[in-house]
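Researcher: Good morning. I'm working through a list of sequences from a screen, and I'd like to move beyond sequence-only analysis. For each chain I'm collecting a predicted structure so we can compare shapes side by side. This is the next one on the list. No need for commentary yet; just the structure.
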Amino acid sequence: MQGETRYIQLIFFDAGGGHRAAAEALSAVLADRHPRWRVEIVNLQEVLKSADPLFILTGKPAQDYYNAALKMGLTYGSRPFLRGMQSLITLCASRIEEVLREHWANSGDIDAVVSLIPNFNRVMFRSLRAVCPHTPYVTIMTDMADSPPHFWQEEQDQYIICGTALAARQARETGWYRPERIFETSGMILRPSFYQNTATITRGDLGLAGDKMTAIIMFGGYGSKDAKLIVEKLAKAKPDIQSIVMCGRNDELRAALQHVPSCHAVGYTRDVAAYMRLADFFIGKPGPGSISEAWHMGLPVIVERNAATMIQERPNVAVIEQTGTGVAVGSFRSIARTLRAIIADGRLDAMRANVARLDNRAVFEIPDILNHIMAQPADTAQIVPLKPRRRRIVRLARRWAGRRKRKSA
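Model: Good morning. Structure tokens for this chain:
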């Protein structure tokens, strides 16, 4: 029933900015749709501090190192990095689950746990089952696909919400989820502000020409040094193209671009939509959140695809190309040449028409899905034991740790 009181925990962390943004957007819509529900946003980093080996050793959580790598553009070799992280989580699973069991036990009667993060879904599911065996566990994928495997989709009997047909197909093909527990939405979660068509600023307010082609450049919440390169290349394009650069929390980038002609640098803001409304197209990394925001605002996207593209973002490029809503370049050094080509041959207009056909209402669809899930009979899903492959990882890691300990003795 819509008026029934519910208690939901939305789990996020700050690896990048998309997980927090999705949790906050969903929380806002849930509060509007179901004012009697208690929706709590839980930062997993804070819960797991005592079980995070990097935090114990250095005083900084693992996500801080990840975000620093994003800021400096150190994204080569993302597959081994992610596999190493997954192995570390498996190695520390006992301690992580112990901390999480205490968290669930202290939370009271939870009607649903909703994860908006990858990699930790197995330990969260197992720990929740141990304390609250009938509480539904739901994963909302904030990536367009599960890449690499076990990034989002785990071998366990739970609910999963996918923002693309590709992710939903992957979930069905695993055979791990009952068909009735797989839900597909019309896109990724966006902030409610993207659906509020209120013009608050103009190009003139930013010192930009009203009739000049404008690019919006975004690299997530921590920016990227590549933005400066792109601005320089656009300034030399014929005709030259002005730009709005979303610098996020990267104060150094904003300072470097602050006085560059035909460029307006924006610091961290929650109202990205207001700036996207001023642009003609998007340039940036193929992150699922930024791409989805650009599409919703009617913008074709130009992204980079090369060895530095993070493994979990590579499927997004395939989605862009399959839908004809953008183009990928091997290096942003060729951005001016690419723009000249797609403008001259009409591809930019064709991309804009394809983008206009999309209709993403995911953030408004998910409350109904959650309501449906909580209305189901008591959840009786069982914990799936660790697979032999993962047991081997744990044994090898413990053996290696034991050798190091003996050597240091």
